[in-house]
Amino acid sequence: MHQIVTPRLTAQIKKEITSQFKGYKFSVRRSAIGSMTGIDIYILSAPYEMTERDHEQINQFNMEKFYSGRKLLDIKKIYSITRPHQIWADITIGKWDKPFQNTGA
User: How far apart are CA 88 and CA 85, in angstroms?
Assistant: First the structure.
């Protein structure tokens, strides 16, 4: 059974993620479709180029097919942070209205 995502749980997950990823910027939002709740995690910036597009939705079911290297490890780590909370999580690199930023030199 999945937990209901509350504002408190959303804040807790954001805190856990940001503590593990120094130099990254995230937006973590509660999402609801009907009676189901989950969270949307947006990676707004990172110290390396995660995508060549403005934004990219992550396919969590075929990660090894589409992603590799540091990007794959980061995505897996973010999902591993959400998994103990038994919630649905969607990860997107960038947002439709806020393109991803590479902060690396």
Answer: 9
Query: Looking at the domain assignment, is residue 41 inside a domain?
Result: yes
- Structural domain boundaries, residue 58: 7-94
Under DSSP, the state recorded for 95 is B
State CA 23 to chain mean position distance: 15
Q: How many residues are listed for the chain in this entry?
A: 105
Is residue 88 within 8 Å of residue 36, measured between CB atoms? yes
Average pLDDT value for the chain? 91
pTM across the whole model:
0.90
Domain count within the chain: 1
Q: How far apart are CA 94 and CA 96, in angstroms?
A: 7
